[in-house]
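User: quick one, sequence for these tokens?
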């Protein structure tokens, strides 16, 4: 597998920071009272697509939160464009994914307690 370029990593870091601020600014009420955090971002080599991974706590609300996020993807991209527009020629298409690694960690902890 090819390594990500320095540019890809820089862009991904910037998008992660900005997207985290955008989501935080909406407040927990916008996400049915769930805490939503951006756990990672991967950017395509041509910088045209950003995969944004989000964690949702409590995880029972993940489906509802992901539905809300997918319905508002265009608005999120618009806000992101306002923030990164000066650094990037094109604002990447954004695709949100649920990061379930927190659930995995919880599951392992439960198994270890047994």
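Assistant:
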């Amino acid at each position: 597998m090819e390594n990500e370029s320095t540019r890809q990593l820089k862009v991904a870091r910037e998008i992660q920071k900005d997207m985290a601020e955008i989501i935080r600014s909406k407040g927990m009420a916008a996400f049915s009272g769930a805490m939503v955090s951006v756990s990672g971002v991967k950017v395509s080599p041509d910088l045209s697509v950003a995969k944004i991974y989000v964690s949702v706590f409590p995880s029972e609300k993940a489906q509802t939160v992901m539905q809300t996020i997918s319905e508002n993807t265009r608005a999120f991209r618009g806000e992101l464009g306002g923030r990164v527009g000066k650094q990037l020629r094109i604002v990447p298409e954004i695709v949100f994914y649920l990061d379930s690694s927190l659930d995995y960690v919880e599951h392992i902890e439960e198994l270890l307690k047994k």
